[in-house]
Amino acid sequence: MMLKRFLPKSGIDYLKPSIVVLFAVFIAIKAPVFFTINNLISVLSQGAVIGIASIGMSMVILAGEIDISVGAMVYCTGVIASELYLSTNNLIISTVAAVVCGGFFGLINGFGVAKLKIPSLITTLSVCNILSGLGSILIGSEGTLSAGERYKIIAQTKILGLLSSAWIYILLFLLFLIIIRKTRFGRYIYAIGDNQDALRACGIRADFTIIMIFVLTGMLCGIGGLVNTSRLGGTQFNISLGMEVYCIAAVVVGGISMSGGRGNVLGVFFGVFIVAALDNLLRLMGVNVYMYNVVWGIVIFGVVMIDILKKKQKARDLERQVFET
Amino acid sequence: MKKVLVLLLACLMIFGMFACSSTTGGGTGSDPAQARKDDGVNRIGFALADISGQAVQTESSAFESTAKELGFDEVIMLSAENSVETQITQVRDMITSECDVIVIYSVDADGIVPAVQSCNEAGIPVIAVDRGIKSGDILCSIASNNISDGRDVANYFGTLTAGEPEKSVKCLHIIGNLSSTAQKERADGFRLGVDSWGQLTIVSEVATEADADKIYNAVVDSFKTNPDIKAIFVPYDALLSPVVSALKEIGKYYPVGEEGHVMLGAVDGATEQLEWLSQGVNDISISLDFQGFGAKAAEAAWAWLQGNSVAETIQTISIPCVMGNVDYLAKNGYLWGLSK
Amino acid sequence: MRENADKSRLTIKEFALKYGIYIGFVLVFTVFAVTREKFLTVQNLINILDQYAYFIVCAMGMYFVVMVGGVDLSSGGLIALSSVIGAAIMTSTKSALLGCAVVLVMCTLAGIINGMSVAKLGLPAFIATLAFENIWRGTAYTYTSAQTLSGIPSSITSLYFTKMIGIRLTTLIMIGVFIILFYLMTFTGYSKKLYAVGGNKEAAKVMGIKATIMMVSAYAICGCCSGISSVLLVSYMASASASVASSLSLDCIAAVIIGGASANGGEGKLTGAVVGALLFAMIKNGLNLMGLSYFYQLVATGVIIYIACAIDRQRVKAGL
Questions:
Q1: What pLDDT score was predicted for residue A323?
Q2: Chain B to chain C, count of Cβ pairs less than 8 Å apart?
Q3: What residue ranges define each of the domains in chain B, with the CATH number in brackets?
Q4: Which pLDDT value is given to residue A283?
Q5: How many domains does chain C divide into?
Q6: Which residues of C touch A292 (CB under 8 A)?
Q7: pLDDT classification of C115: cutoffs 50, 70, 90
Q8: Which residues form the domain of A102?
């Protein structure tokens, strides 16, 4: 609020770009490696799993709900995928199993939210507990599963200079863009986040749409789990638990409103990039290990706040225009 | 609203009565040892810092089987997943369960002290295993020295690179779980070891929360700023797999002996990493006696229960395993992770 | 606040739904009591209160935030930071009182900052408090370098180790906090305004309620409760470290919602939140006594939360 007084009338509009430029200069001096093509490509593949899960998360948040079982779903489906690969040696079976199981976990979430009317935070919290326990039970006492070199094909193949994990993410994201922009399902997602009751009054099955959103999120997490374990060549106890925090951050930084119904999904791509790049930068710059969380918190807070200041400014401008005419 | 108040008061009253009766109850059973004998069940509790890993799984199953063999009727094992307050609560719940002996593999050597005090008050002996406990009455500690384990790895790196120019051997230090004492001690040990060799230097320390995913990214990124990293230290063996995967991705993976090999060292002695040693993937793994931790804790508890004397500290031996000795050690059954 | 005075007779189904949480409570209680004889001892029931006093206090604070339609994910990080700073002050100045005062003031301020970010700046509660969770916890780690601070003065640790009429002082503090908050919610006009703001902020504004102040006050109460919780935790652990209370915030939110509060705010009772928290504590205690392995405990907790909430939502749907 205070800041605004020192800026020209629409100064807020310049705030974000100028901070980005300042930041970029700072990075260029402190960690020049960051801007090499090589590094930017690897940021993309590092963010691939978070990105795939964030696609689901952005649908969930657009619909005005939240899903904190994402990390546990990625973990559990990853365990299932690599466990099955070890016993059958068949990539197709483990892929299908990961996606189907993910979809089933999503169904439990969706059913709880849409039919039983449990708040999504709690539904997904309990599913998060169940799946993180289940995943560890499935791994068994060995603690690690090494799936071998062939399993790495899924995520580690290089195509046109990019790793296949990044390609999977990009393709899924394009598909998601088309679904959101061009199909009725996409419009329903926005409509649900905006006003669920109105949707019901129009005779649209809101419950079904919500269940579908969660099922799709689960399936995406299944793919995420597969890609993640393939990248690491196997799985271990407690991998990617807690990932949902990064996904939520990516979605919100990407400009989607937490109350649902508003936001440009293309922004999520940049949100994921920012989250992955921040992680990457912290390591490249050799920041004190204990400071990671602090930097992270400040960046998330800052980005979202600028966004909100900007929206307020826009609303005020609009008001003024309406008033003047 | 009146109803609610009445209800509340009633609850409080009942509560107060219960409370009073319990204090008098506590008064009669003032000799805790006496009270426990009445139970007739030999019950032992094992409070674990975490259960996520092959090493602890080995430790806990060795503990369970030994305890059952010796004649304990019931074995309660609880894991706190690296949360100090959970572990304190779990130990206190074990007191409620009337365990005769409580074995603690603590999350934090300082943090667990009040729970040990509660055990002391209840007259239940405490056995510290794997990690020490800072104060309180401990019947017996079965300890390894995490500091020296970390230092051993650094020393091995030092001997391998002896004669290189000063500060030329760059080490990447991967930090696991910030809340664990073992992590802290191993890290300190490694730093100490590095300091004692002129040519070794730590160029980067990265926090990873012991998450394989983060370790993978950490290795990839660290090589961008320091392409000439020569050695990587990881606090737990299991965390080496993502390191190797990452090295393969960036094309820095060469087996031991080849030009450009990055030295890899870790602590624990897990099966996969021991097998790797003979394949030349990693250089050194410090094998801790996890089976011994579990078995010896159960034996000490049983000895106490039978009225025999128990040694105050039982030292276990950590064995540095390298390519040259791993086969011999495995053949003779010195390693928990590997036997041939 | 809906008193169904005219509806004195309830069918069995209605009764079951209306008191769903209590029935769930009794059910879980019976299961544990039957399977573990140690569970149903007076000593153990008091133990549950003793051990989870800090959790229950924190859940009571969380109740207020949930009532205004928010969440506070920063409680855990705040407890970590305030406890290490409080412990450092206590050990260096040897003054327990000063340490506690600093903890309480700090936490209340942090609560106000949360409230301002949400109510004044308009940040989503989830994101604002998530950011602060990271900031507080990271600061705590940086400050302590991940070391545990021990040597807490005995006047603080004796809060846990001293018993009055058979109950530990920490538990009495918890009961005291409950009585104060219960008074606030029942005998002052505060609750009406709180429900109004939580139910519909704009409508509340029209009614002349200062919605922003109400929201900030709710977050401040939550912060203050985190502070008290922090002191209780320090006395329980006789030490302080940056890694404590890592899943506390989410558990508290779950407890409040299991206790019948609506996640959108404006609905639910303080006693419900306390019963929810007790249920949570009881589950953890019972599973510990059963000696269930950690992974199975996770699964069991998840299933119980899911079912408990499902039952409670049927009550809301039935309009009871």
A1: 79
A2: 121
A3: 39-144+290-309 (3.40.50.2300), 146-287 (3.40.50.2300)
A4: 83
A5: 1
A6: 138
A7: very high
A8: 37-286
